[in-house]
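Case study 2.
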Amino acid sequence: MKIAILKENKNEYRVSVVPKDVQRFVNDKHTVAITSGAGSLAGFNDDEYKKAGAEIVNTNKIAIKNAQIIFKISSVQPKELKLIDPSQIIISLFNLSNNPKLLKALLKNKNSTLGVEAMHDNGEYVALIPNEQIKGRFGAIVSAYHLSKLDKNGYGKTISPINFDNEHANFVILNASYAGYEAARTILALGGNLTILETNDQLIQQVKHDGIFSTLAHLYNSKFDIVKSDFDNLNQYITKADVLINTNAFPGSLTQKRITEKMISSMHKGAVYVNLASDQGFGAETERKPSTFKKPTFIANNVIHFNIENVASVFPSSASSAVSNAVTNHLLKAIKGENMLGRIKESPIFFNAILTYDGKLTSKTVADSLHLQYTDIKTLIK
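Prediction:
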């Protein structure tokens, strides 16, 4: 197989495949071309890729030519899509539920796409989890930063009590998702009070019986609870929150906009709202567009808003290594022969991740989010 690794656009520091995994592809008799500088922002230079056996090329256009598999970490850009034909397979983080324009182009071009965010088997999203872990842990830490006066608009409150001041910061997390779970553990480890709002009764019971939360809460004598998420509870708990963290309920789905402007307005001046699901849409009515690395926050209704789309890119070395390794582990098994799509049918993790094929939308999650027609991939690949 001929594999291309593309250089990312601005505001993205990760790389889709790291040198040690390039070496694994080369050892397995595949050829790899990578655009010069593709890994530099993640800490991997061209010499490392060259030593691993990759060919270094000057542009994405050259890398794409004659490749059978094209790797990216962020969504394909329109100018790149013009260079890719239907016979080539694109592997990337697409988040199509929040990008109908790209979806339309992929369907028109009849591209075959594998979504890293959709790689799963038995409910475990193997390549998505590392990014969600980073999101959750960093979400807790960045909210603590913006509560401080290092952010001039911050309230100035510590997360856990100090001598002669017994106040805990109050955190609210929407959804016991992968990111929500990691954010919850970090917040409790830092000593904050925490309430998780969740709609799924099974998840509520699962979290309630997970001893790590009660153990961490006990360390700082903080409060922890998980409650049913409904409109009344959203109103009640958000009003009392110093920090509100929104996460996505289900991988690949469109983020639900459940937080009203009135709810944000009920928070005190200098409170913090962190949306860890911006890559899949906005969760609050006060969000107009994503923030950026250069300007990570904005103020709306006296509340600090943080909603960078690609949060995991803040730690590009770790994120790139983890996702690259997860994808490579499974892909090497699926490309032993030339008929890759035929082989992928034998791999549930990849077969479940086919988003578009031959002009058809094959992701039920995306179809449901955008109210579009869905085609079962099993009827298309024999």
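The chain has a mean pLDDT of 94.
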